[in-house]
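fyi for ur records
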Amino acid sequence: MLSHVSVGTNAFEPAFAFYEALFAELGHRLRFCDREKPWAVWQQQAGGRPLFILSAPFDGEAASVGNGQMIALLAGDRAAVDRCHSTALARGGRCEGPPGLRPHYHPNYYGAYFRDPDGNKLCVCCHEAE
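which gave:
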């Protein structure tokens, strides 16, 4: 369904450190990084799509976040959700909802919500029973 997701940043290096640590916890790999543009792309270990892109906006204007927009990243288990939330906060993220079950979505939905250093809202979730 998705080809790629792109997130803008106003401070590439702190944002890169944030996402590099987050994707390491999820087992995804850096496809490439060009600090001159600046932009970086991550993908699943097996390759293919979707891709996650971090970049300064192409139009040269400041990056900004949208109200109601969120990117949800899939974790293989609940422990990975916990680790990602801790990693995000340690790398300058801000908590928007600690890890836990959200049975109002479905009985096994376990998720955590946070914002990256630029204010983009993210979720890491697992849909598997413990």
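Helices lie at 12-26, 78-90. thats all i got for now
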